[in-house]
Structure formats: structure tokens, C-alpha cells
Description:
Elements: H1 8-19, H2 39-48, H3 54-68, H4 75-83, H5 88-96, H6 101-119, H7 126-136, H8 142-145, H9 152-161, H10 171-181, H11 187-200, H12 205-217, E1 220-221, E2 226-227, H13 233-236, H14 242-262
Amino acid sequence: MNEISIAEKDINAVIEGIRRLGPDVKGYGTVDPAWSRPTAVLIIDCVLSLNRKYDGFVVPRLDAFVENHPDICTVSELVDLMASFPTPHAFMQQELNFNYEERAYTLQSVVEFVCKIVENAPKVPEEVALKNWAIQAKPEEYQTLNIRGFGIAGFQYLRMLFGADTTKPDVHIIRFISKLLDRNVSAIEALHILEDSSKRLKLSVRDVDTYIWQISARPIRDGDVTNLVRLDPDVAEAFPNEEAVNEALRFVLKVIDDIKHLT
């Protein structure tokens, strides 16, 4: 893959966009339970989440798998379980309630890839071997895997799940960067811009990625009480903080109420 050249003005625009997300970004990537699951479940998570709704589709299947197989934690244990079925597709149908043959073979290929990482580091624990790989790997390496249906977003998510401080250029990240720059960006461009911008702000890239995903895929938080609304850049510039936005909206509501009384 060719070297990506990022304009300084683009970095600055994204830096300002991240700043407008607020202080909650810092530390956000550590609270998601996804990061603390066993290796076997992390791999399933990574493949199941490809182009699927995470909360509605992936999480229930992960929870059911953990409940049915609390003893399946390592990648070798996952290999043995999958081998007990006639095909990867049969495993996915029965154990993950997912009738998608092509995705089943994607899972098998990813499992085999992770096995090789662990086998190449026999003297260290599995978690350490995978974290070392995740940190040292480069985004462009996804091309060398040649796994059908497993592109750069999936590869990057696997790195994140194993402990790398990076981002996955999925639809949410690409949309976020494209909106800030007022143009379409590629997956690899979005990845490098978000990494550079986050690091200049001394923020964890994974924290920023997780927060952007949160406000994009889960627009309502805090027990479905707090509505998160992303302001356009020109509007956000007029308000220094959340309180100022609320005060302005209260004034608008008061004006509307006064007009109703007059009429």
C-alpha cells in the first residue's frame, strides 16, 4: 500500500473535532467490556461484528456462547471446539445462531491466523503474545492475510481487541472524519488522520475510536436519559461548552412558550 500523505490542515480540523467531543473521551476505551473477554470470545466478536449491529446482533450471541461454554477461553480451546463440528458453518449455525457459510470460513481463517501468532511465541502466555503482535502489526498487513470478507476494519478491530492503541476505520470513523473535512475519505486515510490527531492531543486512539462509535452507534446513553446530539462545526464554534448549549435551548423554548401565550 502506498504511503499516505496527510495535510496539516486536515489534522488540525480533526483535532478541533475531537476537542468538541468533550472531556468524556479520555479513558472511554477502558470501560467497554469487549476488551476484557477471553481470547476465544474476542476472536468471535471480531468476526461476528463485521457489518452487523453490535448490540442487537453480536452481544446476545457472545453472551450465549460464554454461558454455554465458560471453559472455552484460549484460541486452542476454540480450535478444538470448532473441530468437533463437521464444518465451520455447522459450528456457526449451532453455537452462534448465525447461518452464514462465508462468514464461518472467515472465522476459521482468522482463528488459524491467531493460532500461528501464538505458536510463534511459545515461551510467553497467549495474552502477551497477542498483545505484542497487536502493538507491532501495521494496518497495511491485512492485505497479506488474504482472508475473504476480512478487510482493514476487521484487522484493526482484532488489533484493538488484543491491546493495540489504534482505530478501526469502519463506517462510523469514516463518516466522522469525512464530515469534519467536508469530503469523502478512504478507510486508510481516516485511520491515519485519527491516529495522528489523537496522539497530538495525548489521547488514547482507542478511547477516541470507542467514543466516536458510541455516539454514532448508540445515540442514547446513561439509561436512555441523556440524548447525545452532535453539533455541526459552525454551530459548535458559537458555544464554549455543554452548559452554553443548554442555556441557549432553554431561551428558545421560553420564546416559543411566550409566543404561544401571546397567540
